[in-house]
Write a structure and sequence with these properties.
By secondary structure, the chain is mostly helical. Helix content is 82%, strand content 0%. The chain is elongated. It holds the Pfam family SecG. Its main location: membrane.
Length: 74
């Protein structure tokens, strides 16, 4: 019973971690950054949201690590 609960929590945390990583903007934009780089100067960058998503993903990664280690012990 406890194993199933931790496994479900682990899967939910993993899905949340995937979602927060995918929602973050890329650090290196490559060629698209060279072409669309002027748009950031005009419209600005969403720094507040990126910082929040970075903190949330760090917390979720730690929780995922803890739950996975707990599953390996049980």
């Amino acid at each position: 019973m406890l194993h199933t609960i931790i496994l479900v929590l682990d899967m939910l945390v993993a899905l949340g971690l995937i979602a927060t990583v995918l929602l973050q903007s890329g650090r290196s934009a490559g060629m698209s950054g060279a072409i669309a780089g002027g748009a950031e100067a005009i419209f600005g960058k969403k720094k507040g949201l990126d910082e929040f998503l970075s903190k949330v993903s760090a917390v979720l990664a730690g929780l995922f690590l803890l739950l996975t280690l707990l599953l390996s012990v049980i």
